[in-house]
Amino acid sequence: QKEVEQNSGPLSVPEGAIASLNCTYSDRGSQSFFWYRQYSGKSPELIMSIYSNGDKEDGRFTAQLNKASQYVSLLIRDSQPSDSATYLCAGASYNTDKLIFGTGTRLQVFP
Amino acid sequence: DTEVTQTPKHLVMGMTNKKSLKCEQHMGHRAMYWYKQKAKKPPELMFVYSYEKLSINESVPSRFSPECPNSSLLNLHLHALQPEDSALYLCASSHSRGAGHDTQYFGPGTRLTVL
Q1: Residue A81, preceding bond cis, omega within 30 degrees?
Q2: How far is the C-alpha of B59 from the C-alpha of A41, rounded, in Å?
């Protein structure tokens, strides 16, 4: 069974802090990974995608991928209350047509 | 432009009704998806269309019937649903099926309530 695992949280961080969201996956065939943000009652919104080992930065967001450890993370710098949402990690491999979603981590940023 | 549109935004239907959900994208994507999402759960894949042909059916009950009239449109026909089918129904699209690096973009969803 191919799985993506996340801590469901909530992860609570103060405004201005760095939020660190983590994800592990079991399928070594997974090639690409995606972080989606989902506000309550809304649809998932793509934040970052990452395909290669290392870091990828986009504004306040940094995605990290370590294929040897089967680990993906998302760092949010200078966290804002508007970042409070559920963050879904998803993986995909070339030999499937599906995204495998984690259960999501709920992030709470308090003023 | 990475917009996927869905109509209606909200739908309330009885168990004997027939209704349809609609999804549209104009990004030239050739893969389209239907997901079902229950509260506090991740999206659950239902169907995948690739180049207007059904490529994946995740053992979805026949009361859900997908249709892809053309490369920009995706419908989900609903008939004789059960209250437990109440959920957020999400449509997504991507460039092509199984491309590995293929990002899926989600529409805003249809909130379905079955009475």
Answers
A1: no
A2: 26
Tokens of A41: 């009652």
CB B61 within 8 A of CB B50: no
Residue of A nearest to B94 (CA): A97
Chain B residues within 8 A of A103 when measuring between CB atoms: 41-42
Between CA B13 and CA B64 the distance in angstroms is 14
Given the structure tokens 């449109």, which residue do they identify? B73
Of the candidates A4, A12, A8, A2, which has an alpha carbon nearest to the alpha carbon of residue A104? A8
Instruction: Give the chain B residue whose CA is nearest to the CA of A9.
Output: B40
- The whole-number mean pLDDT for each consecutive block of 10 residues of chain A, a chain of 111 residues, reads 88 98 91 95 96 95 96 97 97 79 97 93
Model confidence pLDDT, tens digit, residues B34-69: 999 999 999 999 999 989 999 989 999 999 999 999
Q: How large is the C-alpha radius of gyration of chain A?
A: 13
Q: Which amino acid is at B16?
A: T
